[in-house]
Design goal:
- The longest helix is centred in the last third of the chain and has 19 residues.
- The chain is about 30% helix and about 20% strand.
- The strands form five sheets. It has a five-stranded parallel beta sheet, covered by helices on one side. The protein has a five-stranded antiparallel beta sheet with strand order 13-14-15-12-16, with helices on one face. The chain has a three-stranded antiparallel beta sheet with strand order 3-5-4, with no helix packed on it.
- The chain has about 425 residues and is α+β, with helices and mostly antiparallel strands.
- The protein has two domains: about 325 residues, 3-Layer(bba) Sandwich (FAD/NAD(P)-binding domain), CATH 3.50.50.60; about 100 residues, no CATH class.
- It is globular.
- It is built from 14 helices and 18 strands.
């Protein structure tokens, strides 16, 4: 059997998961990443498995697509609860990139770093190749856009306070993100903030741990997370909507510090001036680590989503798929990994002439993909963040009976659906 060529554009978590899944399903896969490292925002993420995200992770593993989840579990720093986030684990962000890279390479994926895609070639609703910044053409049978929906510099300038100089995307050095779906002519959907400005701002900043007071740093490294109440004059509930509604209102009242290994992460903070940050006990000498402009503003995302179906195929195209934050208003590592896994598997199926695998809505992954797809078509639906860890979608999981703190419950559901291990099977041509 001739293996189809699957080209993945973007090496964040969704791109890595898509590449591995497509390779496992029997495709010949090339992963193109514009920077010199993989995992994108995963370099400063750290928190996993809290609330409904546990269910997504366990379903993915039961389906046979758990490689990246298992890689993260190999570098766990802490386990516990963080405010309203139950059964959380925190992975070591200093080790995440090489660990995930090994998983990608072990799957037989051809990895090409510092390869920025800038354009596409297409013919009658099908892509035939992508063009790289240096002029090279990379042809393929099926393509997956995992370019995300954050930045570059022009977006952060137009819809923010300029480039916040983040360590995750590094657009000034490696060039702005380019979406192959947008280049191919797919509509570019955006979230709109309450004030009418497109996009949502980044939800976290990180602080150099060495600038914390020794007592606070010791407590943080022992417990994994510490919450510090904000003085009333520093509480800004409007940030809840500016970051996309992916944190509760009560979380806006605290600086929630998480030990992610290389730094202390302030989750859900958005941004806070350095003078305000230094008013807090233990943070009197704090220095912001990422983004460098996090005392003034943060990076801007949710500005480039592509309409797609439940197979994650872009509407109007025969061989173009999307995953991660490019695939809609879903937010978070587990969500990006799950859409990546399904887009990669379905891309391989498309290349082999097979029907797509659409997970039933009796599974959390299937419902999440379908529900967020519906929200993309609903008026105002793009203006909320949908995370299995918080707010709207987590509440939906509980109402549908899809959430359980028992990690084995998700695996049993996949087994009962007759889908156990299906993503580990190689696809043959029809």
């Amino acid at each position: 059997m001739t293996k189809p060529d699957v080209i993945v554009a973007g090496g964040g978590f969704s791109g890595c998961a898509a590449a591995i899944a497509a390779a496992k399903a029997g495709a010949r896969v090339t992963l193109l990443e514009r920077t010199d490292i993989l995992t994108a925002a995963g370099i400063r993420a750290g928190r996993m498995n809290f609330n409904g995200k546990l269910v997504l992770a366990e379903e993915a593993k039961a389906l046979g697509g758990g490689e990246v989840f298992q890689a993260l579990e190999s570098i766990i720093l802490h386990r516990g609860n963080i405010v309203e986030e139950k059964h959380t684990y925190i992975y070591d962000t200093a080790r995440v990139e090489p660990v995930v890279r090994r998983a990608v390479e072990a799957a037989g994926v051809t990895l090409r770093l510092e390869c920025r895609v800038i354009d596409v070639e297409k013919n009658d609703g099908a892509l035939t190749a992508v063009m790289l910044a240096g002029g090279e053409k990379v042809a393929g049978d099926v393509f997956i856009d995992c370019s995300g929906n954050t930045g570059g510099v022009d977006i952060c300038t137009r819809y923010g306070d300029g480039c916040a100089m983040c360590a995750t995307y590094r657009c000034p050095v490696f060039g702005n993100r380019v979406s192959i779906a947008t280049k191919a002519g797919a509509p570019e959907l955006m979230r709109i903030r309450p004030d009418g400005t497109p996009g949502a701002i980044g939800a976290a900043i990180t602080i150099h741990k060495s600038t914390l007071k020794p007592e606070l740093r010791a407590r943080l490294e022992k417990e994994g997370a510490v919450s510090i109440p904000l003085p009333p004059d520093l509480v800004d509930y409007s940030k809840q909507q500016r970051i996309g509604g992916i944190r509760s209102r009560s979380q806006m009242e605290y600086v929630n510090l998480v030990d992610i290994g290389m730094a202390a992460k302030c989750v859900g903070l958005g941004y806070l001036s350095l003078s305000a940050l230094r008013r807090l006990p233990g943070l009197e000498m704090a220095m912001i680590e990422e983004p460098l402009g996090g005392g003034k503003f943060n990076k801007v995302g949710k500005v480039s989503m592509a309409p797609r179906n439940d197979a994650l195929r872009v509407q109007g195209f025969t061989n173009l798929f999307v995953a991660g934050e490019k695939a809609g208003p879903g937010t978070g590592i587990a969500e990006c990994l799950c859409t990546g896994i399904m887009a990669g598997h379905n891309a391989a199926r498309a290349g082999a002439g097979r029907e797509a695998l659409i997970l039933p809505r009796t599974t959390a992954i299937g419902d999440f993909i379908s529900y967020t797809g519906e929200m993309m078509e609903k008026e105002g639906g793009l203006n909320r963040g949908y995370s299995a860890g918080h707010d709207v979608y987590f509440e939906r999981m509980k109402e549908l009976g899809l959430y359980s703190p028992d990690p084995e419950a998700a695996g049993r559901r996949i087994k009962d659906s007759g889908l156990e291990g299906i993503l580990a099977q190689e696809i043959t041509s029809s």
